[in-house]
Structure formats: C-alpha cells, structure tokens
C-alpha cells in the first residue's frame, strides 16, 4: 500500500532558555489513504510537535516530510502555502477555533472562499450543505447559527466540515475529542472513522487516551519522550503490547512500574526532554531495564510481520 504522507527520521528541537529541548527524536511515520494512524503518548511526549513538523510549521530540525512523493523541503514558500491545505488539522478546543462572529455557513465556506473554487453563491451554499450533511449537522438547522449556539461536539463537527471543505488528503486530529463529553466524543470518533473510510482520507489521530485510540485508529504508534516505542495494528498492539511502556499505559495506573507487578518505586515524573536519559528513554521508569538499556538506544525491530518495537527486552507476544 502506498503512503500518501511520509515523515522520515524527523526530529524537533526547540530552543529554550535552558538549552535545546529535544521534543521529537528520529520519528518515522506513514499515513495511508482510508486508514487512520493513532499517535498516543503522555502530555509533553511530542505529539503536537510532530503534527506541526508534518505541516512544516516550522519544518522539522532534521528529517523529511513528503506528501504524495513531494518533499516539502523542496517547495518554495508559495508552493508550500498552496500545498498545505491538503493536510488539514482539527484541534482540541473547537469553540475557540471558530470565529464567534461568523455564522456556521461562512465558517465552513472559509476554504472555498480562500481558493475561490466556487464562483456562484448557489454552488457555495450547496457545497456547505453537503459538508454539513457529511458531519451530521443538517444545514437547515445549523447553517445560520453562530459558534456560541453550538455544543462542543457540534462545534467540533463544524471544524471538521471546514477542514473537509479544503478537499484534503490528510486529516490530523490533535486531541480533537479530549475536551468533549463522553457522548460527543463517541459521535466525533465515529465521524472521523466514517470520513476516512468513505472519503479515503489518511488520518492521523493524536491522543493521550488509549480508549479513544481504540475507537478510531487502524494502526497505533506509541510515543514516549519524543521517541516511538512501538507501532503496529491497533488491535494487535493493545491485545499484546511488546513495549513495557505500552503495557504500562494499558494498565492505566499512574505508576508504570507497579502495573507490571514490580515492587521498585518507579520514577514519579517522566524525565525532562531538556535532559533525556541515555539509551532507552523509558529505562528510568521501566521495571525490565538493564545496564544495556542505559548504554544503547534500542533500534526499532520487527516483532511480527507488521509490528515493530524499540526495546532491548520486549514482552513476549501471546
Ligand atoms: N515552542 C516551544 N518552545 C519550547 N518548548 C516547546 C515548544 N513547544 C513544545 N515544547 C516542549 O516540547 C515538548 C513536547 O511538546 P508537545 O506539545 O509536542 O507535546 P504533546 O505530546 O503534544 O503534549 P500535550 O498533549 O501536553 O500538548 C514538551 O516538553 C514541551 O514543553
């Protein structure tokens, strides 16, 4: 299967007053039409930094991002501006991402207006109605509302309709359901799933919540302190995690060490990306860590046909 978007070996280093902060290190991801990759990790693990690097906002410090075979680094500023709408993003806080003074019909039409793709007003209205329909908001009822007259879930669906108006190939949802109540979460997760299936979009679903990931991601990539721990089909990874960190996340307890039946106290907080541990970044919280883990960064290795893990002591697959 050919990927529509490839990020290869990307690193993101933020300059801070305390020195360089390694938010993302040597991460590779591929997104495929009609599939969604869920990227999961704790707060600060570098998820949003990856999303911004994919859009070249700004470009990654190292590595390449290519869309449909085009390396974004080879484009002029103008070409990049023209290509960027092919990758649309939906953010965590739907209400603040919508202009409070505009009506839903004008918000959804923003990408159409920007590119003057639809000349006549009736065409614009018809397209807006179609897009609102696609996200389950009947135009008759919603087109004239303002953001304040929408629930959080409805506002998020308007943001998704606006993203679709740009006719994207890739849809990135960055914590797009985290701020919603449980039933709105389910609606938006189902919608994202349907849209990738029906429109053949390639999805990147970013979340700290494994429950949400289970509902939407075909494939799962687990991020810890800026590095990928493991990757593979979501159901397989969740049924039998190969990386101790994934196992700890799944056990859903605050102390990963305890989740694995270890009695040593795990480090209370994840280490700082200003001074990440040597070798494997998870080793300071990992009950299976040995000296080798401190000395040597584990490379990503295949553990089955379509799964990889970066660990010196991977858990046995059932
Ligand atoms: N512009 C910036 N300047 C300096 N440091 C930054 C910047 N943006 C992010 N960081 C740092 O980079 C690391 C990764 O942040 P990022 O926002 O990518 O993580 P995240 O997984 O998306 O977390 P969250 O879910 O909390 O947003 C964090 O330590 C963060 O403090």
From TrEMBL:
Membrane-crossing segments per the record: none
> Which Gene3D superfamilies does this UniProt record tie to the protein?
P-loop containing nucleotide triphosphate hydrolases
PROSITE patterns registered for this protein in UniProt:
ABC_TRANSPORTER_1, ABC_TRANSPORTER_2
> Can you name this protein?
Peptide ABC transporter ATP-binding protein
Give the species.
Answer: Yinghuangia aomiensis
What molecular functions are annotated in GO for this chain? ATP binding
Q: Sorted alphabetically, which InterPro entries does this protein's record hold?
A: AAA+_ATPase, ABC_transp_ATP-bind, ABC_transporter-like_ATP-bd, ABC_transporter-like_CS, Oligopep_ABC_C, P-loop_NTPase
Q: Where is this region: Disordered?
A: 259-280
Q: Which residues form the signal peptide?
A: none
Q: Does the keyword Plastid apply?
A: no
